[in-house]
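User: Hello, can you help with two protein structures?

Assistant: Certainly.
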Amino acid sequence: MDPIILVLILVSAVIGGMMASLGVHLLPVGGAPAAMATATGVATGCVMLMTGSALTGLFTASAVASFWEFEHANIGLVALSGGVGAMLMIGWTMLVANLLYVFGAGIVPVSGRVAVDPITKESQTEYKTPRTDGHGMPNVSYISGIAGGFVGGFGGALIYVTLENYAHFSPATAGIVAIGIFIANAILAAYNIGGTIEGFHDPKFKERIAVGLFAAFTVSLLCGILVVVATLVFPYLGLGGAL
């Protein structure tokens, strides 16, 4: 196989993995505290939330790729469709969560980490319930989540379509490998975040994003090397059809 193609496969795995990690750090994740409306964000963990968006993005990317013969799919457009699919999933999730908070619990979506919303410049402090760290998805968290879904979905779809086009993996195998690299980076990001996060305005984001991206680079590089080795070795073992 052309060495340039092997490098492209490796680079796509690294870039896609790092985008997955960045996407997780941008999500407003509240975990168990958010379920009790005592923390800003969606009431689930980083990995679960991002896995759902990643799978949605991969389904969207697969559907768009199917309009062409897979080996001639437009890589940029397929990756973009993955980003849009993941973004829509996250957007609807946050919207429904906000509806439950507002009309079910009777509370205003408000940040617990900043006194003024960095985007709308709306004051937050007077709307925050005492002894909570905010609740719901305020505007800045919603926009951060939309951006996180797009970035993560784009990264996952980029790995997927590259494996299909250049490593000649089947659609199923390409999807499994892409989601595997994605989840590995989502788990690392979840450990790096260590609990709840509101989005790019959260002080925790600024403090930990560099370490998170370095960890993502390392694990994605290792994953990419394994994919390249599999691409080279499997055909010689008579396993080419398994890819």
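That covers the first. Now for the second protein you mentioned:
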Amino acid sequence: MKYLFIGYIYDQDAEKFLLKKNGHHLQPQNNQYAWGIINGLNECTGANVDVIGSISCGSYPKNSQMLIVKRNFFVSSYGIDYVGFINFYDIREMCRYYGFLKKIRKYIKETNDEITIIVDGMCHTFTKLIHRLKREYKDRIKIVLIVLDLVGKYAIQYPNKFQNWYYQRHAAEQMEAARLADGYILLTEAMKGPLNIGNKPYTVIEGFLPKTEDDTDLPEIKRSKNKVVLYTGSLNKKFGLIDLLEQFVTIDDDSYELWICGPQMGDIKIVEAYAKKDRRIKYLGFLPKSKILKLQR
């Protein structure tokens, strides 16, 4: 049995370079999760999971300094076969789709073993690939889909009506393609219903945090004299962040502080407005994982 992982993933050694070039669109939390899956499979099965990947980043020039992302932009210590692309709005998705498709076809052609393809997530590029691969190879391959977030009405909605209509149209196609998978890795049991997976095999892994070197190598951190509430994550009111801000300002005690870390998107303007009104609220920006771990410590 051969295992092939496809997803948006990068070597940890490249993170500093990629954060500098792409900032908050890099999604290091997703990268950590992907490596947890790969390392777990390698350890539990004794297999050496092959990886075809591409990086997640914002589009040039607004959200990334990289217009051309070459497939050899970084020499992978693990052996990731990177997919290059032109990083300009919808063009990049087309480049990624055909780049992944070409490499996967080559991979299938070069082996006579059974192949299980593990697809990391329900983004539009990957669900299109599922549809195409199942049509071309039928029972020649097995596809296992990792579902950490559902799409459509189960996801965050766009306030703009046209954006929301466009998103929902794609979401319907994504859900339809997701049901073509042969098996599933789900974050929660409740995802079974919307995916309508029937009797297909699945496992629920909930959340996990892979152990990293950072967990043991962190020095002791000097504690703040104040009592600190720390928020790290997406700055979106759908996650209760505005509720947190509203309740925090009602605390009449200068010994409390609220530190917020997250990307400059979503409801960042609301966060910045609260920080201006209340000096105890500190927006620290989008930070790399190593700094987040130190703050959490």
